[in-house]
Amino acid sequence: MALTPDAHFVLNDGYKMPVVGFGTYAPPERYPKSLAEESTKVAIEVGYRHIDGAFIYGNEVEVGRAIRAKIADGTVKREDLFYTGKLWSTFQTPELVRPAVEKSLKSLEFDYLDLFIIHSPVELKPGDDHFPTDENGKAIYNNTDIRDTWKALEDCKDAGLVRSIGVSNFNKRQLELILNKPGLKHKPVCNQVECHIYLNQAKLLEFCKSKDIVLVAYSVLGSSRAEKWVDANSPVLLEDPVLNAVAKKLSRTPAQIAMRYLLQRGIVVLAKSYTPERIKHNFQVFDFELSAEEMKTLDGLNTNMRYIETKQVEKKRWQDHPKYPFNDAY
Fold this sequence. Notes:
TIM Barrel; Rho crystallin; 330 residues; eight-stranded parallel beta barrel; alpha/beta
């Protein structure tokens, strides 16, 4: 596949996913929602046609407004864009799935979502509290059979509310549970996971490719370093000396090298920035190529280190969930 600004993967249901997406998550305690709206407009103007959102980001109203503004001014048509929404962990019981889709549709003011994915296999207690905890501050879990949740997603696809359905943060075993589900109607088109030079997901990528499932990478530039999720002592990916040496050699930014590395491995990349200049630079990954030697050098940076779920307090809170995905090797 030639990597050009309009490059895309044909998903296993026939729809097309652009290979570079614009991420819209930002820690709400650090960034006003208006920034999501303005940066999404910039991203579309620059050339992004893949927008990655989620209910739990709390900014679908603003992102939808930005998208509709760019449609209204003639920059794009709705069919030019690929929008991803996500099913939050308190909505996994089957009767809550369709209302969750409809809530995102209403916030965005869309007729359909291009992709709707299960945000995480970890399920929390259903209800209006999106991070339910007990009197000791411990998360309150739920444990719906993920195959029942998947059936509800299939129904949303069949109803035309969403075009494609997939998952996020699933390990191989959890993917197989869905793939081997009796009466499976629609395979997951993708698995969106943390993936970068320090966590290159080689084994999971190989498995997903063998099942015609696209691997979509988040935190490709490290992470937003939100205090709730990420250890402040973790290394800053874009400061990595090896990555910077390759970037200097090719007269590129470290972010461009980090993204191109994943693209050349057949991975869809999501990049987020609220700075117009960086949004523009992060999309300029199509006019150069990493050599086999440079790819091998970057392969050597893998340490299987996760940014997300690295804080010990979070590990203790989530790791005992029966569907916690990161205890498996991949």
